[in-house]
């Protein structure tokens, strides 16, 4: 009646696994039996109309029994839960009944109590008021008794560095002494006098703590905490009060709207030694308390507040997630506010700011010097002043002697306008960058502290003053600044940048006279507590002016940077003892630390300080780079380039005759001295660009300029060699240019990446056709005169060396284009104060590299044409003569001997200057030209006999041997071409009939014109029919 189902209403019943047959039986029961409106009529009709009625009835009984078994299983599985539920329900009903009875009783009792209390209300109120009066009198007596102990307890709290608790006790005691009734107590006059003295003691103690922690010298400074507790110290700058809706800065998260938390709180608390100060008489070490507090949870009270009376400020500190250093600074500022000494503290901080910053910088330089000295002692080596990295990797082995005897270190000292110390990757540059980065990093931490304290002081002065301005005026001469004694974030930032600027000037040998005077005047104005009447001229920040102690640098001298002049101040920061050298060329290494310093300042300063000149130090550095450093680079390097390419030795091949060509500079690649110097200078200039990404475009443009000037000089040298020479004129002809472009060897030459296939060209029909056309063109130029050829071998060697040097320089420029990319880590910020251009090599340099490569190819093409013309020049002596030899000669003709000697000599002379593959290109065209010339010459030979044929064959063999002796030459191709010549001339030994038969069988071996020449030439003893032509 039912078919199987994937899932039905009977699924999920608690049927045991050992009675799986029940599940199978249920799966066969139709779900229509379980419908809410069950209709039995269809089932009855089905049974009555069935042929086997008893069988159907029996099937229904079996399903009924199956369902009863399933019901038994379900009841067995759930009957315990049903019983438990019934019991729980009974308990709930009983509890509700008992509760109702209890509530009824409670209502009756409360009504009776209300009646009793109403009848005695006045008596209770009188007793309560009397108890309050007596309690207040007792508390006042206790406080009066404890006031006498306040001075000694304040001194004890100061000794324990519980400054906030001491200030709390002092303020509360002073307020208590001002109460009515206590002012006439004579015994308290001495207490008042002592408390007045202690107010001054407290002020100076708090001020000293604040001053030391401002410059990270206190026991709760971030540097001290990091040394004591490592990573367990929280590093968040300032936590925000949880119930404060005031804005906070991006990095320090300092409160900008904190008004009056903590001040005047708990004024009625006990000062007689109650619970607030009990249990803290034992003295413990500061370090132990510091370590314990640094490891405590955020909800614990810091060690310096352990004796303080709980108030709003204490709760704020407990809830704050700031670091201990920041919490301590906030505590000290709160103490100054409670004492009413904000203006006095600000004035003193202003007066000591410049000298303290100077001392901090000097101390950091000494620490850096000690670390550097220890590092050198540990390593047991001296610093390598001549090491180089990055773009100058090709010049790492500065002290290594090349195979040709030249020293790269010596070359660098002669070529570069600066010493190895001052190069972009020199030791002086790295030391200056690391030193300045270390100093500016410490200054950043000091500035963060000044930002915290400055904002808190300004906020407190506004909250407790009479000013009702809604916004803060950040002008240093404003009333807000006067309320803090002239101390402000603006003033701190200006002084810090002024000191950093003087440090940079010391490194660069520049004297910031105007900036120093301006900073001194500004310090005096802002540190003065009296109101300042003058108005500022509207300019913000610092205006830096400077002069250089020496106005020029000689390229010919020791080139050690800009030396110290006699008028340089002797008092400074001590950088001369740390840095190996000083001078204007360190401006590049100074730029990046200053840029990072400005970015960090901008990252944690709030937006309201964006107009106070927070990038004045960067502006000074950029102005110095733009107005002094870049012009100095352009002048010095332009002179060096001009000197390098204008000396007589600049384009003189410099290699020993017995040396072997190497593609590596370190192993003696014979790059021309002038081009090698230019390559070195270009890489050095681009090294400056890497240090100064903003000025990369100017420096790259300058590199392009010097490379263009060098290219012009190379073009001039090339022209001087080839001018008025037949090969140069021939190269300029359009027909020869087209043929050489189609020549497979020239095509491979232009695609320099496929140099390995130079000597292995397949001699197909197309190649042979192009060679034939070139040879015919050259043969048509006869007579070739010697004065039209480059007969000076030194000039040919210069062309070869110039080609290789140009190729080297082109490759160097392309490598620079691949490696010299813009540093994205510093260029991600889109600041409106300064922009940084990309440092990628422009397309103009790559185009210039292609020009260099094209000129190098032109040199090789001239050499290839020159060797072909020399071959024609020697072989043209075969024409207009008779080869009627009377005896068999043992040697080739003199012109062949001269040609082979010339080929061998020039090949040997070019070995050190050019690669084997390029030499293969130069000499590779001789065999095809010679083969064609030997065959063409037969038409102009008047007579030839058998011995003459042997002489010409001997000439071809000698030429083949000379060409095959050149390394990497395709000897098989040479043999194939010259075998064709010997086959051609040996046909002259055949009688007419045999020759005619050979011509018929090898119709396409030679052209019809060449076969006709074989018949026309006069061979003694051979008869040719008149109709043979």
Automatic annotation (TrEMBL):
<dbReference type="GO" id="GO:0015031">
    <property type="term" value="P:protein transport"/>
</dbReference>
<keyword id="KW-0268">Exocytosis</keyword>
<comment type="function">
    <text>Component of the exocyst complex involved in the docking of exocytic vesicles with fusion sites on the plasma membrane.</text>
</comment>
<protein>
    <recommendedName>
        <fullName>Exocyst complex component Sec8</fullName>
    </recommendedName>
</protein>
<dbReference type="GO" id="GO:0006893">
    <property type="term" value="P:Golgi to plasma membrane transport"/>
</dbReference>
<dbReference type="GO" id="GO:0006612">
    <property type="term" value="P:protein targeting to membrane"/>
</dbReference>
<dbReference type="GO" id="GO:0090522">
    <property type="term" value="P:vesicle tethering involved in exocytosis"/>
</dbReference>
<feature type="region of interest" description="Disordered">
    <location>
        <begin position="272"/>
        <end position="293"/>
    </location>
</feature>
<dbReference type="Pfam" id="PF04048">
    <property type="entry name" value="Sec8_N"/>
</dbReference>
<feature type="domain" description="Exocyst complex component Sec8 N-terminal">
    <location>
        <begin position="22"/>
        <end position="157"/>
    </location>
</feature>
<dbReference type="InterPro" id="IPR007191">
    <property type="entry name" value="Sec8_exocyst_N"/>
</dbReference>
<dbReference type="GO" id="GO:0006904">
    <property type="term" value="P:vesicle docking involved in exocytosis"/>
</dbReference>
<comment type="similarity">
    <text>Belongs to the SEC8 family.</text>
</comment>
<keyword id="KW-0813">Transport</keyword>
<dbReference type="GO" id="GO:0000145">
    <property type="term" value="C:exocyst"/>
</dbReference>
<keyword id="KW-0653">Protein transport</keyword>
<dbReference type="InterPro" id="IPR039682">
    <property type="entry name" value="Sec8/EXOC4"/>
</dbReference>
């Amino acid at each position: 009646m039912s078919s199987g189902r994937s899932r039905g209403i009977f699924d999920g019943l608690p049927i045991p696994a050992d009675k799986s047959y029940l599940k199978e039986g249920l799966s066969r029961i139709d779900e229509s039996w379980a419908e809410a409106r069950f209709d039995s009529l269809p089932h009855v009709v089905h049974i009555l109309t069935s042929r086997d009625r008893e069988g159907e009835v029996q099937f229904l009984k079996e399903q009924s029994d199956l369902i009863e078994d399933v019901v038994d299983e379900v009841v067995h599985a759930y009957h315990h839960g049903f019983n438990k539920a019934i019991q729980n329900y009974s308990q709930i009903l009983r509890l509700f009944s008992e509760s109702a009875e209890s509530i009824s009783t409670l209502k009756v009792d409360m009504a009776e109590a209300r009646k009793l209390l109403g009848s005695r209300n006045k008596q209770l109120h009188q007793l309560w008021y009397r108890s309050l009066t007596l309690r207040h009198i007792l508390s006042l007596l206790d406080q009066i008794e404890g006031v006498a102990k306040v001075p000694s307890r304040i001194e004890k709290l100061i000794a324990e560095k519980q400054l906030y608790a001491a200030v709390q006790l002092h303020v509360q005691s002073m307020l208590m002494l001002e109460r009515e009734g206590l002012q006439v107590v004579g015994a308290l006059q001495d207490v008042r006098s002592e408390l007045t003295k202690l107010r001054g003691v407290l002020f100076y103690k708090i001020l000293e703590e604040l001053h030391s922690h401002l410059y990270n010298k206190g026991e709760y400074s971030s540097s001290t905490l990091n040394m004591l507790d490592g990573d367990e110290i929280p590093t968040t700058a300032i936590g925000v009060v949880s119930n404060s809706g005031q804005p906070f800065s991006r990095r320090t998260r300092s409160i900008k709207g904190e008004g009056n938390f903590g001040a005047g709180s708990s004024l009625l608390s006990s000062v007689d030694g109650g619970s607030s100060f009990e249990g803290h008489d034992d003295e413990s070490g500061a370090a132990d308390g510091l370590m314990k507090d640094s490891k405590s949870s955020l909800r614990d009270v810091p060690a310096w507040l352990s004796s303080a009376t709980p108030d709003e400020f204490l709760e704020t500190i407990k809830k704050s997630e700031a670091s201990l250093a920041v919490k301590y600074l906030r505590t000290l500022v709160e103490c100054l506010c409670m004492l009413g000494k904000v203006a006095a503290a600000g004035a003193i901080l202003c007066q000591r700011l410049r000298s303290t910053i100077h001392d901090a910088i000097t101390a950091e330089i000494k620490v850096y010097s000690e670390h550097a000295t220890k590092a050198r002692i540990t390593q047991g080596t001296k610093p390598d002043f001549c090491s180089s990295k990055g773009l100058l990797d090709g010049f790492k082995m500065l002290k290594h002697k090349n195979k040709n005897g030249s020293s790269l270190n010596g070359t660098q000292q002669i070529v570069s306008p600066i010493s190895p110390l001052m190069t972009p990757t020199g030791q002086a540059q790295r030391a200056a960058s690391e030193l300045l980065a270390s100093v500016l990093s410490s200054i950043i931490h000091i500035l963060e502290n000044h930002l915290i304290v400055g904002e808190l002081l300004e906020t407190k002065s506004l909250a407790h003053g009479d000013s009702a301005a809604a916004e803060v005026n950040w002008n240093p001469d404003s009333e807000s600044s006067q309320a803090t004694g002239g101390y402000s974030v603006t003033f701190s930032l200006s002084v810090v940048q002024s000191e950093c600027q003087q440090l940079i000037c010391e490194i660069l040998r520049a004297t910031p006279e105007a900036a120093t005077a301006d900073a001194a005047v500004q310090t005096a104005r802002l540190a003065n507590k009296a109101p300042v009447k003058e108005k500022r001229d509207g300019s913000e920040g610092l205006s830096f002016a400077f002069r250089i102690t020496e106005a020029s640098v000689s390229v010919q001298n020791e080139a050690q940077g800009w030396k110290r002049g006699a008028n340089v101040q002797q008092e400074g920061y001590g950088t001369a003892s740390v840095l190996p050298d000083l001078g204007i060329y360190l401006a590049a290494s100074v730029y990046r630390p200053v840029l990072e310093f400005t970015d960090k300042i901008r990252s944690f300063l709030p937006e309201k300080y964006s107009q106070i000149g927070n990038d004045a130090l960067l502006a000074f550095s950029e102005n110095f780079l733009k107005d002094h450093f870049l012009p100095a680079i352009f002048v010095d390097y332009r002179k060096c380039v001009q000197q390098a390419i204008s000396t007589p030795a600049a384009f003189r091949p410099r290699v020993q005759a017995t040396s072997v060509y190497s593609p590596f500079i370190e192993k003696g690649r014979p790059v021309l001295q002038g081009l090698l110097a230019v390559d070195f200078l270009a890489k050095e200039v681009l090294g400056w660009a890497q240090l100064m990404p903003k000025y990369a475009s100017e420096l790259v443009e300058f590199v392009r300029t010097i490379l263009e000037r060098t290219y012009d000089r190379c073009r001039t040298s090339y022209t001087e060699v080839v001018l008025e020479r037949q090969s140069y004129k021939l190269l300029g002809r359009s027909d020869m240019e087209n043929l050489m472009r189609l020549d497979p060897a020239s095509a491979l030459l232009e695609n320099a990446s496929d140099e390995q296939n130079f000597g292995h060209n397949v001699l197909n029909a197309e190649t042979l056709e192009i060679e034939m056309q070139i040879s015919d063109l050259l043969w048509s130029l006869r007579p070739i005169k010697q004065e039209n050829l480059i007969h000076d071998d030194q000039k040919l060697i210069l062309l070869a060396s110039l080609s290789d040097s140009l190729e080297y320089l082109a490759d160097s420029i392309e490598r620079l284009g691949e490696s010299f990319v813009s540093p994205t880590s510093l260029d991600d910020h889109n600041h409106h104060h300064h922009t940084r251009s990309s440092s990628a090599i422009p397309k103009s340099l790559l185009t210039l590299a292609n020009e260099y490569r094209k000129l190098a190819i032109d040199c090789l093409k001239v050499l290839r044409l020159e060797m072909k013309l020399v071959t024609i020049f020697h072989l043209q002596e075969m024409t207009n003569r008779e080869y009627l030899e009377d005896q068999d000669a043992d040697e080739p003709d003199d012109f062949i001997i001269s040609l082979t000697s010339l080929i061998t000599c020039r090949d040997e002379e070019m070995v050190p200057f050019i690669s084997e593959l390029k030499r293969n290109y130069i000499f590779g065209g001789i065999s095809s030209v010679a083969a064609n010339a030997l065959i063409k010459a037969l038409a102009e030979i008047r007579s030839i006999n058998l011995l003459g044929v042997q002489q010409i064959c001997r000439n071809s063999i000698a030429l083949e041997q000379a060409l095959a002796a050149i390394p990497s030459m395709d000897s098989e191709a040479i043999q194939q071409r010259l075998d064709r010549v010997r086959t051609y001339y040996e046909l002259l030994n055949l009688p007419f009939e045999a020759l005619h038969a050979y011509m018929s069988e090898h119709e396409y071996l030679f052209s019809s014109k060449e076969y006709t020449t074989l018949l026309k030439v006069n061979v003694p003893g051979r008869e040719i029919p008149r109709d043979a032509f």
